[in-house]
Amino acid sequence: MNADTAALEQCSVVRVVSPVQPRKLAKVPFVELADGRLQGVVSSGSDISRVYVSSITAGTHGFNCSTNNNRPCGGLYGSPCKHLQALVDEAVVQYGLERVARYLHVEVEEGGNLVRSLDGQHEPTPAAVVFSRFLRHLAYLELPDTAAPLAEMHWFPAMGAVR
Length: 163
What we know:
The protein is an alpha+beta fold.
């Protein structure tokens, strides 16, 4: 970690958390722990132009998987589909098993499978919010490399600047 990164982390309101392991983004390009859910975007295995928005609610473990235009996943038969399993697997790579399990309020035995430890049911949730956040993150890839602040992120105050 260089001095610029350390200074940025100290000025930042939100702590920067490095991934536990590097992730391959082809299958699960977007995964986050937000809004009381583990949620993300999972690529279709059969159609390159289709993606699924998958989520698991913390506490209730209600799960959902649908295309970005809210068509239900055909693999949801009362239990999590392969897209949800891929989402969980990548979340564990990104955040670590302990953090994901703690966020979802589930206990996983050592060497156990997090998805099998869930006791939720299918719970329809709209895909639009998660998908629009994914698209917003993709837009940042089109920006040229720079160390300067981004105008749309400028409203985040530096730590201690606002009291």
